[in-house]
Write a structure and sequence with these properties.
Blueprint: H1 2-18, H2 48-72, H3 78-99, H4 104-116, H5 118-135, H6 146-177, H7 181-219, H8 221-224, H9 237-263, H10 274-290, H11 315-322
Helix pairs in contact: 1-4, 1-6, 2-3, 2-10, 3-4, 3-5, 4-6, 5-6, 5-9, 6-7, 7-9, 9-10
């Protein structure tokens, strides 16, 4: 996934070029009336206190992920860790926007990193499901082979990522600085399509995961209760399963918000509300990534102190699962 963020960096150059077109007359004092300043893409002055708090919280989670990956393994979750730090980069540029609210370049960089970094969070979720199914020897309960879950959904993620970053670089930034209604609408619609496809893909993934848990509980009780003899309740793999669900829920809330936000346009009420941004984007994503701080997957997957659960061996179970 790190290669995807490299693509985002390459997108910055054309974005800056496009931003030079359609120059508008900016307010003499950008802090006087930011809501009606034609050059202020946010239509408000970014709050430095909220920005600093967010940066601190995400950095804390990111370093916890790094510590956990070295202590308990599961370095295959590194895409989420990398995504946390690139997400923070976006917020650092909000400090720039606080002092220079009319800076289109700062806004484009901020928007790219904040909107696209969660693609790395989603990729980690895809990897986790495949690893969990293999560790439980419960591959038969997935519609897709555990080894194909990640490539299948990441391919979808890459497609939506490319749509978003290219359109944001071209059409999206034009819509910020251009007075052309058709250009504005085209950029918004294509970018919206990318976000909607990402939402659909992750919603299907979440449904597949919920179905997986249901089938394991119903048809593989020996797998479901694999850790029943553990002395510590938080060493049970089902605790990780719950954290996984919480993380997916956070990403879904954020994805729904982004789709609704963009359906209203880059200048819509949600896109220009700092409260909505923090409450429906930053907070749900924080829940999604922080869920793994106390329940790091490496503590549950690949453990040496538990015996692998046997494969389902009853033919009647196989018939039930296939229905």
């Amino acid at each position: 996934m790190s290669a995807l963020f490299t693509l985002a960096l390459f997108a910055l150059y054309p974005a800056r070029v496009f931003a030079k077109f359609g120059q508008q007359i900016c307010s003499a004092n950008p802090f006087l009336d930011p809501k009606h300043d034609p050059c202020n893409a946010l239509e408000y002055i970014a709050n430095n206190t909220l920005t600093a708090t967010t940066v601190g919280m995400y950095l804390a989670v990111g370093f916890c992920h790094i510590f956990s990956s070295f202590k308990w393994g599961a370095k295959w979750m590194s895409s989420m860790t990398i995504g946390i730090f690139t997400y923070v980069i976006g917020f650092i540029f909000r400090f720039v926007l606080h002092n220079h609210p009319d800076s289109k370049g700062a806004y484009i960089v901020e928007y790219l990193f904040i909107v696209l970094s969660p693609c790395a969070f989603i990729a980690a979720e895809y990897v986790l499901l495949g690893r969990l199914a293999l560790d439980l020897n419960a591959a038969q309960h997935l519609r897709i082979s555990p080894r194909r879950v990640t490539p299948f959904f990441v391919a979808s993620d890459v497609t939506t990522f490319l749509i978003q970053q290219r359109v944001k670089a071209a059409g999206g930034s034009i819509s910020i600085s251009s007075n052309d209604v058709k250009t504005n609408k085209l950029g918004s619609n294509i970018f919206l399509a990318g976000l909607a496809l990402q939402l659909l893909s992750f919603a299907l993934f979440t449904c597949m995961y919920i179905r997986f848990l249901y089938l394991v509980h119903r048809h593989s009780p020996e797998v479901w209760t694999r850790d029943r003899n553990s002395r510590l309740w938080y060493s049970d793999w089902r605790v990780l399963a719950c954290a996984f669900l919480v993380s997916c829920a956070g990403i879904l809330v954020r994805s729904v918000f982004r789709v609704i936000e963009l359906s209203q346009g880059f200048k819509g009420p949600l896109a220009t509300s700092e409260g909505a941004f923090y409450g429906l984007d930053t907070l749900p994503l924080f829940v999604a990534v922080s869920a793994y701080v106390p329940f790091w997957p490496g503590r549950f997957i690949g453990r040496q102190d538990v015996s692998p659960a046997p494969h389902a061996s009853h033919s009647d179970d196989s018939e039930k699962v296939s229905t």
